[in-house]
Amino acid sequence: MTSTLTQTTDPDRDLGTNLAEHQVDPYEIAYLRGGSLEFLKLRLFELMQMGCLIVTNRRLALSPDFQNWSELTPPDQQLLTFFRTPRTSEETLDLEFPQELEDACRQYRQELRQRKMLRGRLVTQGITYVFVAALILWFLALIMTVTMLPAAISVAIAFSVILHYRLGYRMTHEGKQYLEQLGVQFESLALSCSAARAGAPHRTQLTAVAVFGLGVLAESPFDALAKTLGASTSKEYGTKKAKGHDSGGGCGGCFL
């Protein structure tokens, strides 16, 4: 799937870049690698590339020098409104997604499932992790009434693991192989971002961040963003609850 986000905001993206970069969708890669959190980080990075955002005192804020609001899409305008007040990393990663971005994440999830790169299911229709915890405790108490404590604990742990994998999305073996192949294919992009820094084309930097995470921006002009939002990739899919989202169908989990 071609990124409509990139198409809309980066009309000159073909200049000076490798053809291989255009055979992949950076936002799809980021979503597969870390779900909605990595999707969000990549979007914020691209908005920072465009001069919309700055980082000051470890807080992400709207750039006072940015004036071209009319050139932005409505979802980006809505997203940037959140940063009129400087935000910490915790506030940023728990923000409410505009509906268009939420829909985009849902579409990525569906397509990746169809391609067998994701498996599992979201916590849906009122089934929350609080409910799951209560169910585990009830199950443990039930087992303890008919068997010994060590056996009860073992059964409860096994039950918890089963629920954990049933109620959350996970990358399949095919998905992991795909990311490994991308890492090899685009290794030079990570090196170019480290060496050329500001000289690397925006599309090159975007693809590198999608594949490798914000860590490739260390000591670059975007180093403050990497330090603020963190370079690590979330491995928990469908477990993080973001404000204002239904855990069953939107940004409620790392996978939207």
What does this structure look like?
This protein has 256 residues and is mainly alpha-helical. It folds into two domains: 4-121 and 170-229, no CATH class; 129-166. Helices cover 52% and strands 5% of the residues. The protein is built from eleven helices and four strands, in the order ααββαααβααβαααα. It has helices at residues 4-9, 26-49, 74-81, 89-93, 99-114, 129-144, 149-166, 173-185, 187-195, 202-212, 223-229; strands spanning 53-56, 59-62, 118-119, 170-171. The strands form two sheets. It has a two-stranded antiparallel sheet with strand order 1-2. It has a two-stranded antiparallel ribbon with strand order 3-4. Strand 1 (53-56) and strand 2 form a beta hairpin. Helix 2 (26-49) packs across helix 10 (202-212), helix 6 (129-144) packs antiparallel against helix 7 (149-166) and helix 9 crosses helix 10. The protein is globular, with a radius of gyration of 20 Å. It starts with a helix and ends in a 27-residue tail after the last helix. Residues 6-19 and 233-253 have low confidence and may be disordered.
The termini sit apart by 17 Å
Any low-confidence stretches, pLDDT <50, length ≥5? 6-19, 233-253
Determine the oligomeric state from the structure. Answer: single chain
Mean pLDDT: 74
The ordered string of helix (H) and strand (E) elements is HHEEHHHEHHEHHHH
Query: Count of DSSP E strands?
Result: 4
Strand order of the largest sheet: 1-2
Q: Gyration radius, to the nearest Å?
A: 20 Å
Which percent range fits the helix content?
Answer: 40-55%
Please identify the structural class as seen in this structure: mainly alpha
Choose one word for the global shape: globular
Strand content: under 5%
- Please give the domain count: 2
Number of helices: 11
Task: Let me know the largest β-sheet.
Answer: 2 strands, antiparallel
